[in-house]
Specification:
By secondary structure, the protein is mostly helical. The protein contains two helices and no strands. The two termini are about 25 Å apart.
Amino acid sequence: MAQFLRQQGKQAWALRGGLAAWRAAGLPMESKHAGHAPGPEEECPDCHEDVAAHVA
């Protein structure tokens, strides 16, 4: 994943042991509530286009 993100121009590093090692080290975590998933006729909350525009 880190390599993919770097290819996209993002700063990213691989964590030895992954997320389990992060948690075990007691490092900060942030939860994100998914909430309502918009239907195809609804507006995308990120770009404000119809959600259907994102479906291949």
